[in-house]
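Cross-check.
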Amino acid sequence: MNQSDSIVIIPTYNEKENIEKIIRTVFSLEKDFHILVIDDGSPDGTAQIVHHLMDSEFSERLFILERKGKLGLGTAYITGFKWSLEHSYDYIFEMDADFSHDPNDLPRLYAACHDEGNDLAIGSRYVSGVNVVNWPMGRVLMSYFASQYVRFVTGFKVHDTTAGFVCYKRRVLQTIPLDAVRFKGYGFQIEMKYTAYKIGFKIKEVPVVFVNRREGTSKMSGGIFSEAFFGVMRLRLDGWFRKYPSVPKE
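Predicted model, tokenized:
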């Protein structure tokens, strides 16, 4: 296996239009990133495309874990986090398959952690205004005010709490009790960031432009947002009464 300190976790469900292009784009970057695809039984052949690329070109940089059925975004990332820790990666990224997150921003998130000493870097749509392209206005407002709601209820000052474009230092994922993470949808993104904040890790928001997918079908639903909405109250209560781990020494 080629050595890299960084792995990008990409959860997939029916992403045949995007998966090869996103993999090739990440691998074309000057910095060497590895990729771990977590596929939830895509009936459209997404996993088969990944296997073909592994067998033909990228056997030492591309990996896949296949799960049976749609088990939730949060559990996909937890599975990926554990695999990445077991394989000794120091910087572990979350990124969507559909180019809503620009792979060219990966080195910027990496630099925020590796060069600047932050523990968690968030590709933020809202830290410098509203940087969203081709989303319906209703979706923009729902997402933006969801983050404002989290800030209001919890006192957590991150502008884009539901962001799914993230770089974690290894020690963050080693410290957060991953098996105790409760939320499966976009509430998962809020819970992970809030828990890192309560533990005391250094967090930086890196401004990015979010572009709505051009190909494939969105996985967003009202249930995902309702989980996040009501889950925030629970996180706030946790913040009052839960004992969080301490930041480990480097």
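Strands lie at 6-12, 34-39, 62-66, 91-94, 120-124, 132-133, 166-169, 203-207, 210-211. The chain has a mean pLDDT of 87. Passed to J.P. for a second look.
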